Amino acid sequence: MIKIISFTICPFVQRVTALLEAKNIPYEIEFIELSDKPDWFLEISPNGQVPVLLTENGVALFESDAIVEYIDEITPALNENADPIERAQDRAWGYQATKQYLVQCSTMRSRDQITFNDRFAKLKKSFDRVEKRLSEAPYFSGSELGNVDIAWLPLLHRAQIVRNVSGYDMFRDYPKLRNWQDQLEKTGLYERSISDDFQGKFINFYLNEETFLGRGASDNETHCKSESQPSVCC
Ligand SMILES: N[C@@H](CCC(=O)N[C@@H](CS)C(=O)NCC(=O)O)C(=O)O
């Protein structure tokens, strides 16, 4: 059976597990702590990052783009009828999402409003682009779930948790993104692609007393001089 090496709140991992869940492919999952990477993990992960996918034969694959392509090569594609041009366009729209994973992470980790606004402005540029491209259909390419939906899923899921917990709606100005977020929730993939302790760990890391969002996004404070938290997600 395929095995995924994961860190609980990593969006790159969630993209992979969401694809496996959407395709109903059975897999095992093993969680590690990135602050204390085990030696066996460092031996199999050339970039020292999760996700790693261990194939049935025990070969380690890394980089989520390559992992997603591998999964698509060994199983039927979600959008089976897409032609090569549509598939290329889908990959491009998928990259638009994955490029924003760490931007969203650093936005959520912002300690103060000014930092948050700076970082969120970058995220909004990608939201602007996808909002223009989305239709009223439930999914990116129409009525069928596809790889673009899966690539955007971690961003949409995280924005939903942020809204539910902090009250801050990243999609306030984006009705189509909001609709997409709701449609993807209905697939059940948000929950199926994460572990039971995801929400607690996510809140603990991003929505704590030290973050602007964790304080309810209601600061009037000035730029925090001690903005020393790492701008990465994990
Ligand atoms: N380009 C990589 C990015 C993966 C990544 O950034 N993973 C983070 C966790 S979300 C990680 O493993 N960080 C640990 C490190 O960089 O040492 C991919 O697509 O798989």
Major sheet: size, sense and barrel closure? 4 strands, mixed
Number of helices: 10
Q: State the name of the first-level CATH class of the largest domain.
A: Mainly Alpha
Name the strands of the widest sheet in spatial order. Answer: 2-1-3-4
Can you offer a commentary on this structure?
By secondary structure, the chain is an alpha+beta fold. The chain has 2 domains: 2-74, Glutaredoxin (3-Layer(aba) Sandwich); 84-206, Glutathione S-transferase Yfyf (Class Pi), Chain A, domain 2, CATH 1.20.1050.10. Helices cover 50% and strands 7% of the residues. It has helices at 11-22, 39-44, 64-74, 84-98, 101-108, 113-133, 147-166, 175-186, 189-192, 198-206, and strands at residues 2-6, 27-31, 52-54, 60-62. Strand 3 and strand 4 (60-62) form a beta hairpin. Helix 1 (11-22) packs parallel to helix 3, helix 1 (11-22) packs across helix 7 and helix 5 packs antiparallel against helix 6. The longest helix is centred in the middle third of the chain and has 21 residues, at 113-133. The radius of gyration is 18 Å and the shape is globular. Mean pLDDT is 93; it is low at 222-231. Glutathione binds next to helix 3.
Features:
alpha+beta, Glutaredoxin, Glutathione S-transferase Yfyf (Class Pi), Chain A, domain 2, 2 domains, 4-stranded mixed β-sheet, 10 helices, 4 strands, globular, binds glutathione
